[in-house]
Amino acid sequence: MDTQITLRVDGADRPLTVDTRTSLLDAMRERLGATSAKKGCDHGQCGACTVLLDGRRVNSCLVLAVTAEGQEVTTSDGLAADGPHRLHETFVDHDAYQCGYCTPGQITSAAGVLAEAAQGWPSAVTEDLVADRTDLTDAEIRERMSGNLCRCAAYANIVPAVAQVAVEQGVRA
Amino acid sequence: MREFRYEKAIDPAGAVALLTGEPEGAYLGGGTNLVDLMRLGVATPDVLVDVRQLTSTEVEDLPDGGLRIGAAVPNADLAAEPRVRERYPLLAQALLAGASGQLRNRATTGGNLLQRTRCTYFTDTTMPCNKRDAGSGCGAVEGLHRNLAVLGATHEGPTSPHTCIATHPSDMVVALRALDASVRVLGADGERTVPIAELHRLPGDDPARDTTLAHGELITAIDVPALPWATRSRYRKVRDRASYAFALVSVAAALDLDGSTVRDVRIALGGVAHKPWRATVAEDALRGGPATEAAFAAAAEAELAAAAPLADNAFKVPMATNMITRTLVQLAEARA
Ligand SMILES: Cc1cc2nc3c(=O)[nH]c(=O)nc-3n(C[C@H](O)[C@H](O)[C@H](O)COP(=O)(O)OP(=O)(O)OC[C@H]3O[C@@H](n4cnc5c(N)ncnc54)[C@H](O)[C@@H]3O)c2cc1C
Ligand code: SF4
Ligand code: FES
Ligand code: FES
Predict the structure, then answer these.
(1) In degrees rounded to 5, what are phi and psi of residue B184?
(2) Does domain A2-79 match CATH 3.40.50.300?
(3) Which of A11, A159, B117, B316 has a CA between 20 and 30 Å from the CA of residue B171?
(4) Domain locations in chain B?
(5) Domain named 2Fe-2S ferredoxin-type: which ranges (chain A) (predicted)?
(6) CATH 1.10.150.120 domain extents, chain A
């Protein structure tokens, strides 16, 4: 069933007509030419499609495009609107990828992790649930990034790439 | 995926009126379960009524010291809520043990309660499954069932229309069961409150039905009553990998001690039954008795005495017994 919507992707309003069955991920990739977010599984199991929706990381494969009207969608490309994001630079510095397919999802997810830590959100490995500050230790980064799989297993380099930005942003001791 | 109409209502009553008139329609929360099942061809609604922006996203204080959680509160926000972390550590931990950061940001409290089983035959439309296709039989009972139920299941063989050994996959629900939460529901005839114990059902002779809700009934909120001693509580989950996997077995427990005597205790199990399993046999055995490892283990064994495992999930029985015991030992040693 066709519906007219306007999606706001990486700062630009993009009107389009979509079938209600279209995911946000497919609308971006197949209709708007915004191919930064990737499709790995289409079932919420890999994180390759991660985008920020009004600043919160979500799996865009499980979001119906019609439900994202009026919300700000940010992909890894969008994070580089004013030059590379610090995460882009530390991923390069730490060689935090091999094929790169999972990387835009890793980057947007890491941006989400940093924002959640800045708000003091705990995780499953946080010892003190009521602590008001989060310290993104390696164990915390691994747990919080567990929704992003990397087929090339670049995890050993992704953790320090995220950790470096966490130190710069004051959420890691 | 079947074609569907996408609808928004102006208020909860409007949503109920809309869906009540659409026998094949469904509510849409975060969509993290429903959209997946639609893509798999397991769920085939012809109308989606979006309730994510319709029900409350607030966590409010109740007069008794409990909390009212709006149905649209995202799982991530509920886990991060300071009052939940302080008053109900087991609930925050259960939420944080579920899914991934991305999914928890999108998933709602109402949707989490009503997520469907992860039985692999349920999600495969080429296989027999009484839950998906009533009367077609059960592929799991003589197939892959390592992750399925050991308590309260119906097994009458693979071709019986009653057989189902599915488990409820939610972590959050296990903590809510331990906390005796209640679910506020709006239907065409008005509002009612359903104790969480009565929301989910055992498969019985009708495995197609997960819950006691009628079509069109909308979850508007979950009430969690005050339980001051829940500050000494914990959620533990055993799974095949350290993160981002469903539970094999999980335990939500709270312990109230009077010196070295158990004044009161709450224990609920996940991953073992069609609904979150409240361990009332173990609780009754422990109340008023000594808070020792031997007593915890005996109570856990008494609870699991009713287990009827199959060939490949028998490991869950000692696993559940050990987890109840270890969790209570840890709680007894912890400072409240
Ligand atoms: C890869 C993956 C891993 C996961 N791992 C875990 C895990 O480890 N532990 C865990 O607990 N969960 C896990 N989940 C499941 C996740 O928690 C659920 O998908 C989520 O909680 C569902 O919430 P939702 O708002 O997205 O629901 P939806 O998908 O929107 O809805 C689910 C059901 O609830 C109904 N519904 C929604 N809102 C209402 C309402 N207000 N009133 C009445 N009916 C309503 C819908 O019609 C639908 O039938 C995982 C999911 C995925 C995809
Ligand atoms: S266990 Fe239940 S859900 Fe799984 S195949 Fe059997 S009937 Fe279907
Ligand atoms: S493509 Fe969305 S999680 Fe894999
Ligand atoms: S770099 Fe290849 S999948 Fe992650």
Answers:
(1) -90, 125
(2) no
(3) A159
(4) 5-50, 231-333
(5) 3-79
(6) 86-168
Q: Chain B: which residues have CB within 8 Å of chain A?
A: 1, 3-6, 28, 30-32, 35-36, 38-39, 48, 50, 52, 76, 79-80, 82, 85-86, 89, 92-93, 96-97, 99-103, 105-106, 242-244
Beta-sheet pairing, A50-53 with A56-59: antiparallel
Instruction: Give me the CATH topology for the region A86-168.
Output: DNA polymerase; domain 1 (1.10.150)
- Which strands sit side by side in the sheet containing B261-270, from one edge to the other? B233-238, B249-258, B261-270, B277-278
DSSP state of B277: E
ipTM over 0.95? The verdict is yes
Q: Is the minimum distance from the CB of A101 to ligand 4 under 6 angstroms?
A: yes
User: For residues A44 and A67, what is the distance between their CA atoms, to the nearest angstrom?
Assistant: 17
- The full DSSP string for B116-175 is PP--TTTT-TTS-BTTTSTTS-BSSTTS--TTS-SSS-B-S-TT-TT-B------SHHHH
Q: What is the pLDDT along chain A (173 residues), one digit of tens a residue?
A: 899 999 999 999 999 999 999 999 999 999 999 999 999 999 999 999 999 999 999 999 999 999 999 999 999 999 999 999 999 999 999 999 999 999 999 999 999 999 999 999 999 999 999 987 899 999 999 999 999 999 999 999 999 999 999 999 999 99
Q: What angle do CA B90, B94, B100 make, to 5 degrees?
A: 150
Q: What is chain A's alpha carbon radius of gyration, rounded to the nearest angstrom?
A: 16
Amino acid in the structure at residue B336: A
The correct answer on CATH 3.30.43.10 for the domain covering B5-50 is yes
In whole angstroms, give the CA distance from residue B95 to residue B101.
10
